[in-house]
Design goal:
heterodimer, A: mainly alpha, 4 helices, about 80% helix, B: mainly alpha, two-stranded antiparallel sheet, 19 helices, about 0% strand
């Protein structure tokens, strides 16, 4: 564990922040641009995981375990969320035979 | 704390009764369990106990808001057997999901740690995604669930990234530690801290439905089953506002220059968009959704005017908004059952056949619009007074303009009920089922109108 933390700390913290921000931005852009529901799910996962990585990095740098514990909670929540999302996707697919979100246009204005 | 345990146990018992086919036992268990949780919740009054390393704080703010949430849930369960009368299956899954999401709501008002805030929001939202799609055969319900899920998880991502950045700046998730950090570093707040705070505010604005992040509200509210819409519009919104208030109040009160401007922009946009968009709605359900957006804007004012008795004002506003919304949606359930549509035309001539229901709807609409003797007026009045005391006069002027606009669309169903003749002249069959419950909620609204002072000085 100690060696892992030292190895993590060899890379400057700002690199982690820039990398995670880039991942998060890719996720946000993916959600806004993609029309395929599965691709949107993946982008949302990317957003959550960029936050996970950021928490783990901060936690290693501060020698404070609470950030890493939170990562486990986030993983559990993300798993539950994707289970629900896929269930909803199956229901939508059954009624419309497509997972393109442009068909979600019955409710408007 | 014990209220959460009680509700969780009740929800599991409900699931078991459903699995073993004891259909008749499900509702009695809920009607015993919810009042029990309400009483258990009140027992910690004035004690301010902290559980699990400050993760859960049981102070008077928590108890007042949790009491309100439990009471609203009870009122909604009063309508559940009538609303699901024609459904033959046991429905234990829907009732259990409502109770589990209530647990999330109870956690959100009481968090002392950002981990708890995130878990509470997710518990509430994950159950609500499923509930929004609980009418599986209806494509509109599916669509509402899908839209709610996509926007909701997007917002969770923002909230989470904000929490991660805040943790990087302060080194703790605990609200007290963050407050300490803020006091020590007030002069040079790092950019990471302010960006994290802004991202968290965006995530929470999504959850409360404040503009410009309100676009999911009308679609989701319109597509979901009406009972679930009522639940979302009351419990979901009140819990999210309590969480927002606790977050800002307990940690960021000293750095108001970081969040005040953006919240004022949110509030102004929410009030204007909510009220003006509601003018153009033909469906009353969609109009109520936009009215919910507008009320989110007024409730944001309570957070902006943080000092003084803002918690009491927020509680009073939540009470007035929730009870009036439940009344309005209950009448809407009845009208929909009878005419099969949410359109404003289906209200035509309602007063002639069902004077009590029409009266209840009128009371609810007038209270939401803020007409004097009712509780909606005292809530809005107290809110504006506390905002003016904090020097937010321009904001209050915009809110009053929005409020005046809102009178027009709130009175449209009233005019339709009293002054427009309906084509058919048979009295509503569904009215027999709903009449007593609707009358009960409307009377509650009138009784509460006499005691706004009591509610506002509670916390």
């Amino acid at each position: 564990m100690e060696t892992t933390v030292t190895q993590l700390q060899m890379i400057p913290l700002s690199y982690y922040i820039i990398f995670c921000t880039a991942l998060f931005t890719i996720g946000v852009v993916g959600v806004l641009v993609k029309r395929n529901a599965l691709a949107i799910f993946m982008s949302v996962e990317l957003m959550l995981n960029s936050a996970n990585l950021l928490l783990a990095a901060f936690s290693a740098y501060r020698n404070d375990p609470s950030g890493q514990v939170f990562v486990f909670f986030i993983m559990v929540v993300a798993a539950a969320e994707i289970a629900i999302g896929l269930a909803l996707l199956v229901v939508v697919y059954r009624s419309s035979r497509t997972i393109d979100i442009n068909i979600l246009n019955r409710l408007k204005w | 704390m014990y209220a959460i345990i009680t509700i969780s146990i009740v929800a599991i018992i409900v699931l078991f009764f459903g699995a073993f086919g004891k259909k008749k036992m499900i509702l009695p268990v809920i009607f015993v369990g919810l009042p029990l949780a309400f009483i258990v919740n009140l027992m910690g009054w004035n004690q301010s106990i902290h559980y699990f390393n400050e993760m859960y704080i049981d102070d008077n703010f928590t108890i007042a808001f949790n009491g309100l949430l439990l009471f609203i849930a009870l009122l909604i369960f009063v309508f559940a057997p009538v609303y699901y009368k024609s459904v033959k299956r046991p429905l234990e899954d829907i009732y259990a999901l409502i109770l589990f999401s209530l647990v999330g709501g109870l956690m959100m008002t009481a968090f002392g740690n950002l981990v708890m805030l995130f878990l509470g929001i997710e518990t509430l939202s994950l159950s609500l995604y499923l509930l929004a799609g609980s009418k599986k055969s209806d494509p509109r319900s599916n669509e509402a669930a899908m839209k709610y899920f996509l926007t909701g998880s997007f917002a969770s991502g923002f909230l989470l990234f904000g929490i991660a950045l805040l943790y990087g700046a302060c080194g703790s998730f605990n609200l007290e530690d963050i407050k300490l950090y803020v006091i020590q570093n007030q002069a040079n707040i790092p950019a990471m801290f302010s960006i994290g705070l802004l991202l968290m505010a965006v995530g929470l604005a999504f959850k409360v439905g404040a503009a410009p992040f309100h676009f999911w509200i009308p679609d989701v509210y319109e597509g979901s089953p009406t009972l679930i819409t009522t639940y979302m519009a009351t419990v979901g919104k009140v819990a999210a506002f309590a969480a927002f208030f606790r977050l800002i109040n307990s940690s960021f009160g000293d750095v108001d220059f970081l969040w005040k401007t953006s919240l004022i922009v949110f509030a102004v946009a929410t009030i204007l968009i909510g009220n003006f968009a509601a003018l153009y709605q033909d469906s009353v359900k969609r109009m109520m959704a936009y009215s919910g957006v507008a009320h989110a804007g007024y409730m944001l004012i309570a957070i902006i005017a943080l000092k003084g008795n803002a918690a009491g004002v927020l509680l009073l506003y939540s009470v007035s908004y929730s009870i009036a919304t439940i009344t309005a949606f209950a009448v809407l359930m009845m009208v929909r059952k009878e005419t099969g549509s949410f359109s404003i035309k289906s209200f035509n001539g309602l007063a002639k056949h069902n004077p009590t229901v029409a009266f209840a709807m009128t009371i609810a609409m007038l209270s939401l619009a803020g007409i004097p003797p009712l509780i909606g007026f005292s809530a809005k009045y107290q809110l504006f007074v506390s905002a003016i005391e904090q020097g937010q006069l321009p904001l209050v002027i915009i809110a009053i303009v929005g409020s005046m606009v809102s009178v027009y669309y709130y009175l449209r169903p009233v005019v339709a009920m009293y002054f427009t003749r309906s084509i058919e002249s048979t009295p509503f069959e569904a009215a027999k089922l709903y009449k007593k419950q609707i009358l009960f909620v409307a009377l509650l609204l009138i009784i509460l109108s006499f005691i706004p002072g009591l509610i506002i000085n509670l916390i």
